[in-house]
Each structure stands twice: as C-alpha cells, then as structure tokens.
Amino acid sequence: MDTYSEQISRWTLDHLPARITEALNSLAAFERLAADMSHLLAALPARPDHVPALTCRRLLVNLGFWGSALVRLALVHSRADAVLDSTTVGDLSFRHYYARLAVQSASGHPPWQSFASIITWNVPTVEIRLDGDLHSRSEGIFDGPRVRTWTGTASEVMLWELFKVGAALGSAANRSLDPIVSGVVSALSEESLSRLLASHAFLRSFRQRMVNFARGQDPRGEFSIDVFMNQIRQFGVPWQSRAEAPSGPHEVESLARDAIFGMPQLRHGQWVRDRSRSMMSAEGKRLEQAADAPTLGEVIQRSTAKTRPFDDLTVSVLVAAHDIYEERRKLSAAHYGIARKMLYRPQRAQSSDRAGTPTLAVDNSQGITGMSEHDVQRFDHARRVNPLENVLAALPSDEISHARSLIQESLSTHSVSVTLRHAGTATSCAQA
Ligand code: HEM
Prior knowledge:
The structure is a single chain. By secondary structure, the chain is α+β, with helices and mostly antiparallel strands. The chain folds into two domains: 3-107; 125-431, Methane Monooxygenase Hydroxylase, Chain G, domain 1 (Up-down Bundle). It contains 18 helices and six strands. The strands form two sheets. The chain has a four-stranded antiparallel sheet with strand order 4-3-5-6. A two-stranded antiparallel ribbon has the order 1-2. Helix 1 runs parallel beside helix 4, helix 11 packs parallel to helix 13 and helix 12 packs antiparallel against helix 13. The two termini are 35 Å apart. The relative contact order is 0.11. Bound molecules: protoporphyrin IX containing FE. Protoporphyrin IX containing FE binds at residues 162-163, 166, 228, 247-249, 251, 254, 335, 338-339, 342-343, 367-371, 376, 379.
C-alpha cells in the first residue's frame, strides 16, 4: 500500500473511533479533529489523477468514514458551514477530492460514501461454497483482518460482516437463478431443478444468519441496539442533497432478488431507480437488466402452461420453485423482524422517554433512506405472494408430497459454507 494511504488507513483503525467520541462531547475536540484530519490529508497527492485505482478505492473507504464523521459532528455542534467544503486537500475541498478519487478508482463509485466502500471493500473477502464448490466471492481490498468502523465496537464489525456475508449469499442465490429467468437454462430441466435447490440453500443460510444475529448468537456477543440507533445510524448523514447515506436498500442483490421473484402490487421500479443513484454504476445496470427479465414465477408458469400431464421432473421443478418463494418470504420476514427489533420498536419506546437521549444527527423514527416501519412492512407483504400457489393447488397432493420429500432430502444434504479470508489466510469458517 502507498505510504500515505497506509498512514490514513492505520489512523482510521487506531484513532478515529476515540477521536469521534471525544469530539461528540466538545466543540474544541471537534475542531482539533478536523485540523488533524487536514494535516493528514496534506500528505496526499494534491491531485489524485495518477493515484493507482486500488489506492483510490482504499482511500474511498477510509475517507468515507471521515467524511460522514465530519458531517455528523458538524450537525451535532450546529456548525453552519459546510464542513466537507471547508476541509481541504491541497486546493481542493474534501468533497471534490473524494469525487475525483471516485472517478480515478475506475469502479463507478458515487461521489459520496457508499455501501460498497463501507462494506464490500472494507470487510475481508467472503467466499460462499456449496458442497465445497465456490459459488460467490466478494473481495475485500485491505491486507489485514481489521474492519474500519466509526464506533470501534464489536457490534459495528458484526453488522458490516452480516451485510457482506448476506450480500455474498444473496449473490450466490441470484446467480443460480439468473440462467433460468434469462432462458439460458430450460426451466423444466434437471439443471434448473438443481439450480433452484442451490439457490434455496443459499437463501436459507442467509435467513439462519439473520435469525442468529437477531437472537444475539454471535460468539462476540449480542448486537447492541443502543450502539445501532444512537451511534452507527447517526453517521447515516447525506453528504449533499439527493445523495443518500449508505443503507440496506443499497444492497444490489437484495433488489435484484425482488426483480427475480417479483414485487406485486408495489410501484417498485421507481423506488429501485431512486436507490441506484447511490450505488456503483455496474450495480445500477445489473438492476436494469434484472427488471427487464420476466420473474421466476412467470418463467415457470409459461413453461408448464402447455405440458399436461406433468411428468415427475415438472412436478419437482414446480414444487422446488414454489418452495423457494416460501424461503424468500421467510427471509423477508426475518429481516422485517430485525428492522422492528433494532429500530422501530425501541424508537417508539425512546420517543416516549426523551430524557437523556443524545443529540441526534439522524432521525430514528425512519430508516436512512426514509422508509417507515409501514413501508418495510408493505415490502414484506409483497414478498408473501407466491405466484405458484394456484398451480400447485391443482396438483394431486400425493405427487406434491413425494416431490417435496425428495427436495427436502436433497436440501438436507447440501452444505453451505461461508469463509472470511484476508490476504494469505482463511480467518474464519462458518457452516450453515
Ligand atoms: C444482512 C443484510 C441486510 C440486507 C441485505 C438488508 C437490506 C435491506 C433492504 C433491501 C431494505 C429495504 C426494505 C426491504 O426491502 O424490505 C432494508 C431496509 C431496512 N433495513 Fe435492512 N438489510 C439487512 C440487514 C439489516 C439489519 C441487520 C438491520 C438492523 C440492524 C436492518 C434494518 C433495516 C431498516 C431500519 C430498514 C429501513 C431502511 C431505510 O429507510 O434506510 N437491516 N434493508
């Protein structure tokens, strides 16, 4: 790593959380923090135009944490000046320098902190395997095992890891289905059946992780609701108008999954387009493609429309596709439960007892992208619709039971493994 980038990375890991805590309690400490940041920034090349792309990405991660910390602290201290314009790197403002790094990173990164920089690049590489075969790999870009945070807490590390592992599992699940919805793999084939089962196994593993997280079953301890609401979320501050701070709704594979399975009764397209402004450009394109393709339910229904009577393979595909919709419903319910448990429910309790609440930069009564509990619930309801329910209802129940028992047996033998790896080592390996 270049010396200047290394120095900034080490400072972020070793000093940023404590300096933020100090600066939250004192305007003078905030001013000292901004001055020290300027001093460190002075070591960067005045123009990033010749900085290698990987170094730019590393800087986007570290300076992303700095930028949101500065904006939050300015809000807490009611500082009227636009802190990202008054903090400078050479003769460029922090805001412009960050935007130039984004261009020079050749990654399609937006000119403000993103889901990719906080999570995908920050957390070590995640690999997803099914029965030993690699299905998805999401690269981290730093050498060591440490994860950059604002708070220095285990809760924040656990949150970023959950998002990254969830995104990698979601990617593996979607990639298994993509060739079926695009028509590259015939929906009524053995390959389609094994892809449906693989995708199901990935989604189930993701759900189990969500549930374990909500139950506090991580060996590092229980995820702290207080840290989530009053610390981590408080850095979810937009850097400018129309810029959204990073949030779950910017996780591209979740949105692609909704396109693959469908979101009936919702005007979902515009909602997705609004989110893609804060994503990487390739992610926006991925979502456009996913939106243009038919849904899994449509493809399966179309393929079975003219095949009567159904042979065993067709019944198995129908049951497997029906059941993966059920798994998707359960995953959504687990997520909705988390959002309620970690934010909406405690927020209602807090708002009736405001004494002792710290000054907030971000309103806890809604999500970072502005979603209310009702909005998240509406999404969850849309995911309860199973388009294959009626098709299955028309089949003899003994045929369904037979196919389902074979599917369950096959699913029970599938093993999904998740590995977190940083340069040279596989650091942890968790089975689900
Ligand atoms: C593991 C990965 C996660 C992914 C991929 C994810 C993804 C999403 C998505 C796509 C939405 C939009 C609503 C929806 O589609 O239902 C959302 C909303 C939300 N999620 Fe998650 N989520 C994850 C984990 C969590 C966790 C752990 C929490 C709480 C600690 C949480 C809290 C919320 C909240 C509060 C909202 C409303 C969002 C807003 O307005 O910005 N999510 N999430």
